[in-house]
TrEMBL record:
Sorted UniProt keywords: Hydrolase
Annotated InterPro entries: HAD-like_sf, HAD-SF_hydro_IA, HAD_sf
Gene Ontology MF, one: hydrolase activity
Protein name: Hydrolase
Organism in which the protein naturally occurs: Streptomyces fructofermentans
Length: 243
């Protein structure tokens, strides 16, 4: 692994010209975000019905979801999101504060949060497994870099996907969040590759796209994919040179 210092940039670009002697560096490792990238949890409607344990009609569900949406802007909910992923306690507080912003869900805030930690509630996207298999079959090293409050390995293992990964970087274990370069750098060290040889794949422009500031390439997926659907991960194969 060769560490190449990042160029110092002014407002218009690098201060000193740099040249690549042999063209772009090949991708040797791919780092993945978790939720919204490889996995998605069941819908909020499904999760709410599971904790309420009673029939919930369409009209009532729409009202609950509307209140959850409104709750995202509540001052106490907004405040609870700051530093959400730096510790398990902060993560739980952030989510349960939001759930409890809906009076009918407040008694079930703990149960809704517990769903996040249960592997069976998460579904891999339909193209996650095949994409990971193609990448590892081509000899690329894979890692997970996720802003999260618990260990993700049991969830990947539950769905038979953990064996693809050689590095696991959970934000709560490092007391920081993406796009802190330290998280991406740690994953690269674990995999024995330079940042310039790595591709970060995620769904958050600032957090996952921020890997570019650490010297990695980055690919940001659009939001809104349905649980269990196709995520468009075939593009990762092309970007990694696996065709």
């Amino acid at each position: 692994m060769t560490n190449v210092p990042l160029p110092v940039c002014g407002p218009e670009g690098p201060l000193r010209a740099t040249t690549a002697a042999h063209g772009p560096v090949p991708v040797r490792a791919v780092l993945f975000d978790f939720g919204g990238t490889l996995f998605q949890i069941g819908t909020y409607a499904q999760r709410i019905r599971a904790v309420l344990r009673r029939p919930v009609g369409a009209s009532e569900m729409d009202g609950l979801l509307d209140r959850l949406e409104s709750g995202l802007g509540a001052p106490d909910v907004v405040a609870a999101q700051r530093g959400r992923d730096v510790s398990p306690a902060a993560h739980r507080h952030a989510f349960t504060t939001w759930y409890a912003s809906v009076p009918a869900l407040a008694p079930h805030a703990g149960a809704l949060y517990a769903q996040l930690r249960e592997p069976a509630h998460w579904m891999p996207y339909a193209d996650a497994g095949p994409t990971l298999a193609r990448l590892t079959g081509a000899g690329l090293a894979l890692g997970v870099v996720s802003d999260v409050g618990w260990d993700l390995r049991p969830t990947f293992a539950h769905h038979g996907l953990d064996h693809h990964f050689s590095a696991w970087v959970h934000s709560f274990e490092h007391a920081t969040e993406k796009p802190d370069p330290a998280l991406f750098a740690h994953a690269c060290r674990e995999l024995g590759v330079a940042p310039a040889e790595s591709l970060m794949v995620g769904d958050h422009p600032a957090k996952d796209g921020g890997a570019a500031g650490a010297g990695l390439r980055a690919y940001v997926l659009p939001a809104g994919a349905s649980p269990g659907g196709h995520r468009g991960l075939d593009a990762v194969l092309r970007l990694a040179g696996v065709d």
